[in-house]
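agent> Task received from the user: take the single chain below, predict its 3D structure, and emit structure tokens. No templates, no multimer pairing.
agent> Plan: (1) validate residues, (2) run structure prediction, (3) serialize to tokens, (4) report one or two observations.
agent> Step 1 OK, no nonstandard residues flagged.
tool_call: predict_structure(input=
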Amino acid sequence: MYSEILAREEKNQIAILTLNRPEVMNSLNFHLLHALKEQMESLRNRPEIRVIIITGAGEKAFCSGADLKERATLTPVQVKEYIFTIRNLFTFIEFLNKPVIAAVNGIALGGGTELALAADIRIASENATMGLTETRLAIIPGAGGTQRLPRLVGRGKAKELIFTGRRVGAEEAFRIQLVNQVCKPEALLDECMKMAQMICETGPIAIEQAKYAINYGLESDIHTGLAIESNAYWVTIPTEDRTEALAAFREKRKPEFKGK
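)
tool_result: status=success, residues=260
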């Protein structure tokens, strides 16, 4: 299924969403944000889709952030609406009930890096460039960057990158744990698919509960986090998938999970 600005492809329980505005480095205008929101909400309720990969069209950019040409035409009230829309969308992606992988295939600046931060796993091509560059436009990250980046790379490094608006290449991004993996550009989607396929071999309910426990547990003290983990674990105990996993182990075969 394809749309004008957001392409969708499905392969073996994996959905690939491609930001499709290469002529403007896949920058995020209102239209693209609404299209991405619609697709994510649709995929959330489809149990046959286990993993979502987000990438950008073309060879230059994953996403260069906000569409500054559109931004220049917006009133202050419309700018607030844009920030509200993008922040809520990225939070929805972060807390989606299934894993999201960002395939960072080139430039990812401002909102592009914030989109990658909202994903669960980030895999970057060697030519990727990332950064929260908003302070160079006399604003600050507004789609979660000031919150997600320090949780990922640490407070000091996040302040350095945000205060300077400095861009980092793929190798530095890997070194500071901004991305999970770096690969050659031509291998990027294959590597993302390999990761997604490994996730697809696991129990769907277990993945959903593990993501829930990690996301909410990290926002609490250790004792509350352990309670969240316990409650998430209890959800998996009565499932058919857990019984199937034990049977498959005894019978020395691969389990066939149904998400039940």
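agent> Step 4: summary for the user.
The CA atoms of residues 217 and 224 lie 7 Å apart.
agent> Done.
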